[in-house]
């Protein structure tokens, strides 16, 4: 990349960072730290491709000014944790909505494939869900309690087992991103087909509404966060495949770092989903309005924290940058 193009592509970030160092604008310490990392990455790039240039001199000066200020303004661990959840993570995640959209579309497509295959192939559901589960559910349907499977295990044991299993699936969706994203797609494929087959099975038994109002009490968060974990895997893969102005290694490191942040953000939601499945879903006698309130509230929480709030934060940050120019 020519030096002039490199400067034009990144000058807005440098200007925002310089303004923050001069106390002309307020930026959270963790955001300032992220900008510092980006500036030092650009400095390394400039040293490699534009040695002894004005760009290298400017970035070196900027990085030197920043180092002391960042560590001086670092807050206590408690405040850093709050800052991560309140601004740091949502701001970062707002930059990865494209990967989130791709993960959602892939998962949705294979859910449709699962339902379509179950509708057109007689043994497909058994091949996906297993004879044991299908036979047990059919017996429960005959007994008049199709969702009895959620009542067989103790509440705490079910909560713990489900939470651990969901985190395991999410870690696979993230870690398999190392296979240039193909592994992540395979995890989304497997879980999407399973969900589609599962829902069609209950539809075929005339129990679609009963399954939706029961299963999605915990499934709304559980499925959403598996998709978000898939997004984390794609973020890592994107860092490997499309380094941009960074070296491929540095881009990969950033992808891993951001992917891990996304994974950390999912842990509380998996705990909530496990709690709902272990302690709440089993109460199939609850009224429909209460079940739908839990489902809609869960969906609103996911959409707000992972879509709406990050968008709002990044929009405010963009307005700050525009005012500086």
List keywords for this structure.
elongated, single chain, about 325 residues, mainly alpha, 12 helices
Your description of this structure?
This protein is mostly helical and 325 residues long. It has two domains: 3-74; 94-316, no CATH class. It contains twelve helices and no strands. α4 crosses α11 (248-280) and α10 packs antiparallel against α11 (248-280). 37% of the residues are buried. The mean pLDDT is 88.
SSE map:
Layout: H1 3-21, H2 29-49, H3 54-72, H4 77-93, H5 97-120, H6 124-129, H7 131-142, H8 155-175, H9 182-204, H10 208-241, H11 248-280, H12 288-324
Gist?
It is built from 12 helices and no strands.
Count of β-strands: 0
What is the CA-CA span between the terminal residues?
25 Å
Strand content: under 5%
**Spans with pLDDT under 50 lasting ≥5 residues?**
none
Based on CA inertia axes, which overall geometry fits? elongated
Q: Give a quick account of the main beta sheet: strands, pairing sense, barrel closure.
A: none
Rg measurement, Å:
24 Å
Number of helices: 12
What is the residue-averaged pLDDT?
Answer: 88
**Oligomer category:** single chain
- H/E element sequence: HHHHHHHHHHHH
The amount of helix comes to over 70%
| Total discrete domains | 2
In terms of structural class, how would the helical and strand content be classed?
A: mainly alpha
């Amino acid at each position: 990349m020519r030096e002039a193009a490199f400067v034009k592509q990144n000058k807005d970030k440098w200007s925002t960072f310089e303004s923050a160092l001069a106390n002309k604008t307020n930026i959270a310490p963790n955001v300032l730290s992220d900008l510092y990392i980006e500036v030092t990455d650009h400095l390394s790039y400039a040293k490699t491709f534009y040695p002894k240039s004005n760009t290298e001199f400017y970035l070196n000066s900027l990085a030197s000014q920043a180092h002391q200020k960042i560590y001086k303004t670092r807050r206590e661990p408690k405040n850093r944790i709050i800052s991560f959840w309140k601004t740091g993570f949502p701001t970062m995640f707002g930059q990865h909505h494209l990967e989130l959209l791709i993960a959602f579309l892939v998962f949705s497509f294979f859910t449709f494939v699962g339902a379509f295959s179950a509708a057109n192939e007689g043994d497909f559901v058994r091949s996906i869900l297993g004879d044991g589960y299908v036979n047990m559910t059919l017996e429960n349907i005959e007994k008049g309690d199709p969702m009895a499977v959620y009542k067989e295990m103790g509440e705490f044991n079910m909560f713990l087992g489900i939470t651990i299993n969901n985190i395991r699936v999410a870690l696979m969706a993230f870690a398999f991103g190392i296979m240039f994203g193909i592994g992540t797609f395979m995890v989304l494929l497997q879980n999407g087909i399973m969900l589609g087959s599962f829902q069609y099975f209950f539809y075929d038994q005339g129990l679609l509404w009963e399954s939706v109002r029961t299963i999605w009490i915990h499934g709304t968060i559980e499925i959403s966060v598996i998709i978000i974990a898939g997004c984390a895997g794609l973020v890592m893969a994107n860092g490997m495949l499309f380094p941009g102005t960074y070296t491929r290694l540095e881009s990969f490191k950033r992808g891993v770092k951001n992917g891990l942040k996304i994974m950390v953000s999912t842990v509380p939601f998996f705990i909530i989903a496990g709690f709902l499945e272990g302690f709440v879903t089993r109460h199939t006698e609850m009224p429909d309005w209460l079940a739908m309130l839990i489902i809609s509230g869960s969906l609103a929480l996911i959409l707000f924290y992972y879509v709406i709030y990050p968008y709002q934060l990044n929009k405010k940050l963009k307005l700050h940058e525009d005012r500086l120019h």
